[in-house]
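One record is given unchanged without comment:
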Amino acid sequence: MPDFRRPTSLLTALFAAAALGQGTPATTPPTTAPRAILFRLVENTAAVVGTLDGPATARRWTPGESLGPLAHQQIGTTVKATVLGPTGKLGTATVGGRIETNDPCDWVRETRYLTTVKTVFPAHALSAPWNPVPRIITALPLNSAPYLAIVSAELKKWGLTATPRLVQLLRTDLDGNGRDDILMVAASDPVTFGEGVMNGGYAERAGQYSLVLVRESLPGGVKTSVLGKRIFKTAPAPGTFPEMLTQRIGAVADLNGDGRMEVLVDDYVHEGEGTTVWQSGAGNRGMAKVLEWGCGV
């Protein structure tokens, strides 16, 4: 049985950078109440992904493991949070109660998801005073030829000639510049749900892949960023460490109140799962990772 530890690939050690695209990881718990709290929901459990701390001009994400006393108290007495899915707001939930650790991932702080909102899991919830979905998010047909062509070209960059297949295709204006951006999840295998919970699939054969792409319309032109990549040109060798395939855009929302929407990518590692938060940059800057949560090997 493998040991649980902080993974060394996508789910590396939890870290946080400034929500405005600058700053360094938080090393000590903040001493003020957070401006927002981001939760990852799985059925009746809510993991604290991070808290947004500091004044409006210098807000930064603090990972859930560094939960300060005021945030701990706030969550302990329950908070109202907006439940978020890939295409927007799903409702309002009550989150909170006694803070627990997820042994053996003892850096993960968990509380309770007390009010049920109809969704599939994992989902996300944000406790914040602003509107977390300021612009419409539209799901597009998965057989859209132009976007399948983009996926095919991206796969060829990584040496794979597999048939392109879209499992998520979303359109929205991430940064509020008036131009639509396209979010794509492409995968050789469908993303499935059992009893409302996303199933994780393992890489088992040559030609399997999973890609999370964002095609941004920036002042300098269109830029495609890879937010998640699992490429298997050959079948895993017998007896090797198992690798997971499944990735999904879990939510698109303005998490820090600056008017730009972040992209939350959910995925799995062997005996574990995680969420990575990506933010669109100002001007011609592309996507940047600003927060990461994970538990597994």
About this structure: Helices lie at 69-76, 145-157. Confidence is low (pLDDT under 50) at residues 1-26. The longest strand covers residues 221-232. Residues 86 and 252 are 6 Å apart (CA to CA).
